[in-house]
Amino acid sequence: MRKKQPPEPTARPQGERLQKLLAAAGHGSRREIESWIEAGRVSVSGRTARLGERALRGDEIAIDGKPVRLAAARPGRLLIYHKPVGELVTRSDPQGRPTVFSRLPPGRWVAVGRLDINSSGLLLLTDSGELANRLMHPRYEIEREYAVRVQGTLSREDLEKLARGVHLDDGAAAFARIALADERTAPSANRWYRVVLGEGRKREVRRLFEAVGARVSRLIRVRYGSIELPRDLAPGQWRELPNTVKLQKL
Questions:
Q1: Which residue in 208, 78, 237 sits closest to 146, CA to CA?
Q2: How many CB atoms lie within 10 A of CB 181?
Q3: Which of 109, 81, 111, 38 is nearest to 237 (CA)?
Q4: Gap between the Cα atoms of 223 and 125, Å rounded
């Protein structure tokens, strides 16, 4: 009589990448969480996690030794905020300067990209690290549009160069589109342009204009993807996008 073989053990489900799992639960952006994992701040089932590791929602996960809850995945909330000049996109500032987060409703908000202290306009914030990563990741090439006031006269050759590409200290860069905001405006020391980028590198708009000898005196972000800065949203005010609008626009 043939001996009955014991059943093979059930394979453990692979789960999701740890940084994706934590980001989806609202504990930070993927990039932030990856840095925490690299620093040894995250553990799974009592052992230090490794970058790229996968985990399940039922696993015991801790950040800095404190257990974290992984609630069921939910659609992230999304705010649009009209950032004024003079505010920082940071949670705290050693110099005590105002930050955008001081004006927001309670929540674990993650800024989708940044605007420097001298820039204003549309800023998106979400309580979903997963959504923040999707909105910021270069592979999605989500357009950012800006209204830019430039000091100095730009020649046709300068505009062609900015559209074709220039070399910056962190690599080549170019505007996806660049045009005078109003071609009927008479030439002057300050002219407004509308420019579009498909990425969000640090101070990229300002550095591009500086590469052709011009200086940006005012910078306003007016669009992120299909979401435009509402005309009736005053500087320092925020508005939450309904899920139906958000899903249609992103």
A1: 208
A2: 13
A3: 81
A4: 14
Q: Is the pLDDT of residue 26 over 50?
A: yes
Q: How is residue 102 written in tokens?
A: 């001081």
With CA atoms as reference, report the closest residue to 201 among 221, 177, 178, 171.
171
Residues 195, 146 contacting (CB under 8 angstroms): yes
Q: Give the per-residue pLDDT at 105.
A: 94
The CA distance from 1 to 106, in Å, is: 70
Catalytic residue annotation: 116
pLDDT for 169 equals 92
Does 34 score more than 70 pLDDT? yes
What are the structure tokens assigned to 8, written together? 């093979």
Number of CB atoms found within 10 A of residue 150's CB: 21
Helix or strand holding residue 166 (H, E):
strand 166-168
- Asked if 89 contacts 100 with a C-beta cutoff of 8 angstroms, the reply is yes
> Sign of dihedral through CA atoms 79, 119, 88, 162?
positive
Residues ≥6 apart with Cβ < 8 Å to 134: 140, 250
Question: Burial letters for 204-221: b for 16+ Cβ neighbours within 10 Å, e otherwise?
Answer: bbbbbbebbebebebbbb
Name the residue among 42, 70, 74 with its Cα closest to residue 57: 70
Instruction: Name the pairing type of β-strands 215-224 and 120-126.
Output: parallel
Q: Rounded CA gap, 146 and 193, in Å?
A: 8
Q: Check if the beta carbon of residue 246 is closer than 8 Å to that of residue 232.
A: no
